[in-house]
User: Fold this.
Amino acid sequence: MTIRIAHLSDLHFGEKFNIALWRAVKDEIKRSKPELLIVSGDMVDHPSPIQLLAAKCELRSFAEGMNARLIVVPGNHDVKSGGWWGRRKDWFERIFYNDDTSEAEAIAMRDFGEPLGFTEFYRNDPKPTIGLLDGLKRDLVGGSSFAAHLPDAPKKPLVNQTGMNKVLVATLDSNSVGKRISFATGRVDDRELEALQAELRAITDPYFLRIAVIHHHVLPIAFAKAGRILGSEPLMVLHNAGTVLSILSEHRFDIVLHGHHHVAQFARLDLSPSDETGHTMAVVSAGCGALETENDAEGNCFNLITVAANGQIEVESFRYGGGATPNRQKRYTIYREPLTTTKRRASIRARERHSLHCRTRTQHYRITETGDLVIESTLEGLTTNDPTQFHHRTHSVKVARDGWFVDALFKPDRTFSSPGVKMTMSPASAPTSRGEHSRNFIVDLPDDSLRNGGMNYRVRYACANNFNMTRWECIERKRPENDVWDKEYVGFRVPHPIDVLDIHLQLPDSLRDVRPYLQCLAPDNYPAYELDANGDAKFQSDVKLHVDTGMTLHEASTLSYQLDTGTCTFRIEKPLVGYQYRVLWEPPSTPESLTIRTEVIDQRHAILNALSGRTSCASRWPARIARYFELFAEETERLLSRRADGENRSIEFFVYDSQETGLRPFLARRSWTTEPLAGDFLVPLGRGIAGVAFRQGRIVPWVKQRRSHLIEPIPYAPAPGEHVFEMHNILAIPICHPAYARTDRPPPWACIGVACFASTADGTRVARLLEPMDKKLTEQILIVRGLAHAAIYAIIRSLEFPEEDDDKGTGGASNGEE
Assistant:
């Protein structure tokens, strides 16, 4: 959430106050819609109780009208006559630090007959017209009768906690208490500093931003006008500025706001720059708010401080005067914080919240030609300041809708990992509304390993069919709820403070021409994320992510590329906890023929329409279609099977159904049963042997003894009482449009379906396809592919022109029923 703060100072409501200019200042500030209105002292020129009460009513009404919170500190003119002599008066504390002064306000308006605020009437410090007794009372209490109804000064709150926008504001009184003549110098009382530190140590809630407000300047003013005695640095200084800055730095304050010298200035201060936990403070001063500044067009100024959702600080100074009012077109951006500083501060804030800290996290993602994802995840230097809290950690892996986690490829690296580290898998989770699901694995941590110098571990795992490899696949799998349907990405969500995050993405040859790019996404509740039982930033599915454009541009410059391996790398120092860092790319498009694609869609529909109400048994299809399929099946078995005793074989034709994004069987023959395949059996695009063959447009052999685990058959639900046989060899052949029938890798949009052969025997010719193929075997496979295409074309023609079918029977059904 972006936070806006309007910072005013040195209004000096009194003789030199310009009311018309003040109205223009208010209008300009209102346009910025600040959440906080901060005034760093000198609300009035003289500590007159009626002017202080008028100032409170004016500023309170101004803040309430913007739905902003008002925070003020006293300046020397608010507590001492002329700002420099006499005993300190407590009117400021009695008026501004008491929430309810309504009774005194009502009496003042009765006595003066004017609404309280910055008006011409109160600018001249009026005296009420009252009788003798009221005059005596006024003389005794030091003002009009309203002052007698002001409560005593309460204890000043030092720390203001604004839970709505996660801002902590410390207010410091820099006006000397005991000295009668202090000129315009200041000093924060030691007891106040001690009380401030006690309050800060007692705060346990995390705060996004910490601001200190003080009147006197904590650093010398570099641009003050020279040649003056009154107003010179020795007569204006904060005597214990070093102590104040040291305390604010120790408690990690981000911004110090002040006024006093009537000069706008900005400075950055880091008291421990060589320390990795050192903290940079921005010191910002404002000039006068609305004084008469004849012939000085920049004699007044206020600051608008914007803290972006990621924590980056920007300070804009509006300068005006000499007849000129604040102008948004003429504002000055005097500071925009480098994002390296923003990240450094965010890392420190995160380490205050999290017990865990990791020195280096490396995520290596390798995409295969089949759209599989192979990951190597490495943690180095994992430590904690509370070793009793963490005995194990849970890692979650999100798997795409049509993909699956390959359990057999889950392999902890015991050589790299610290002694005693153990890793185990947990059961799969239920799919989300998008069809995505996740797998978790648990890392058991040995006692004291996180405390004694930190620990390391590494694990490798894989998710099959996890990515779309072409734009056609993106379109086929498009879901309304997916806002990046035309892109693919790998991502890592930062769970706890990490010094360096390395993301490596290795792409296959088919994707070498794509241009990966980084995207930094922030949760809408950043930085107010919750912590889970692991001590990590909790993932909340109901919290949306948004792109942090500034951080994305900043981190994009870290890209490096290795041409020989096709690997791009992003090195992110001090990544923001709770953020997700994605590396995206757009799958390439393939040239399409609209005519061919339309014909293929019509051919698929012809088969799918005919399948409605039928099963995959050839006997349930018209005789000519059944004969085409049987001829193909017999010749395929002759060429590929062992014909050995005990061998069971299966041959199927699948057609692609774009509505289901998968392959449906429409003709099948199994040697051990006449039962058809289940009507709802579906091979998802890219899954199973048939799904991979269709997606890649290539012949895919699969042998159980030599499988890679990234391609596995899709089991079907057997009929009641049916015996289930495990296939040891499977061959899938894509069937495509005639224009692509002789193409080695036809695109999926030109494919109609897949023909499959499967056998329970180990010695079929399918196994030999994994070896360098001889000429005879190549010819046999080409024959099978040609037979499959011929059969499908004939079947489609019979469906399109059924009147040409001279046999209206059912091909094998003796009773003539279809």
